[in-house]
Amino acid sequence: MAGSHHLDPEEMRTVAVRDLLPAATRRRLGRIKRAVLDQPGPPTSADRTGKKAERRRRGPLPGVAPDSAAALPRLELRRNAVLSGQDADCLILEIGPAHNAILPKRDGYRTKTLDHLDRDGLVVKYRADKGVDGDLIEPVDYVVSPGTSLAEMVSEQFDVVVASHVLEHTTSVIDFLNDCAKLLKPDGHVALVIPDYRFCFDRFRERSSLGRVIDASESRRDVHSVGTVTEFAMEAVTHGGVIAWAPGHRGRYSRLHDTEDVRRLVERARAQAEYVDVHNWVFSPNHLRLLLHDLATLGYIDLWEKSFHPTVQHEFFINLSPSGSGVDVPRHRLVQRADAELRSLDSSRWRPVDPDARSDESQVR
User: Fold this and answer.
1) Alpha helix (H) ranges present in 70-172?
2) Residue 93 · residue 112 · CB < 8 Å
3) Strand order in 142-143's β-sheet?
4) Are 270 and 226 in contact (CB under 8 A)?
5) What is the CB-side half-sphere exposure of residue 338 using CA atoms within 13 A?
6) pLDDT in tens, 243-292
7) ∠ CA(62), CA(68), CA(69), 5° rounding?
8) Contact, 314 vs 246, CB < 8 A?
């Protein structure tokens, strides 16, 4: 078999002798070998205790909720966060929930749903995905194509406009939020549920800058640029085999797309014939709070922070309202907190590459 290693007689004798030794002796010899070769060994109970003590001394990661917050069932936590200050019988618009609505009609909420396909279209779209229960897809009240103004298509106003894992997909943060603001009642709010880039496939991308957000609004486009699609596809990773994870998750990183996949996505984006759905924007919690505060202060949006909930698992929550009181700390504190989030990134370990496979560099012509 290609890549297999056959033991010669001397190696076979060594293996046989080693296997006859008591387990404690084998472990001791392994530690001596690693010490000589300067190789890291498996963590001992003392190592694990020391790491836990160090985490306690450092405190929680910046922008991450304490462990007690994660004890609440996830759906209940999400509902509490997005409804913050609103009655359960308020009028709601949920944008792009697909099969994972937070406030679905079937649970008694007065919710209207907006998506890029009607229900039948969404059922077809997710039919091949074994992780999706098509029965959970809600009837769609408003079908809006990417690039279309929400306010032009929706005639109602709502107490809460929910955008869960939507903002990062938009072509313009400013225009999307201004569209949402037009759909609010006077005391309504926009509820944003956002993936924390430190704990999802965006882990190795740069966070989105104020300048790029403003430029995207000044030169608004209906589809993502070739550069955006390229960056997303080249940098996307898995961690321990998953694309989103909770703080403290253990595993090694590996690329989500090989180079040929990247080329195919880039060609789709270059053709401009269709919307290629990628994460255009990359956020951590206090970084986004700072960005939204600056946009409101400069007059690009008329939405101010009403409430904030730090990261639980891989997502955080920010509610914005024209009547919001704004952030509860001076701007420089948000700068410090956003900087601390950047400095809290884990030390990345990568899955070993198959030595028989061509390197990424050899595939680039």
Assistant:
1) 74-83, 119-125, 150-153
2) yes
3) 142-143, 110-115, 91-95, 158-164, 184-195, 315-321, 304-312
4) yes
5) 22
6) 999 999 999 999 999 999 999 999 999 987 678 899 999 999 999 999 99
7) 70
8) yes
Instruction: Assess contact for 189 and 321: CB atoms under 8 A.
Output: yes
pLDDT digits (tens, 9 = 90+) for 37-71: 444 445 555 555 554 554 454 567 999 998 776 67
d(CA 260, CA 276): 16
Tokens encoding 252: 């090694």
Query: How far out from the chain centre does Cα 312 lie?
Result: 11
Query: What are the respective helix, strand and coil percentages of the chain, to the nearest 5?
Result: 40, 15, 40
Residues in the chain: 365
Which of 310, 280, 308, 307 has its CA nearest to residue 196?
310
The amino acid at 212: R
Q: Say if residues 253 and 349 touch (Cβ distance below 8 Å).
A: yes
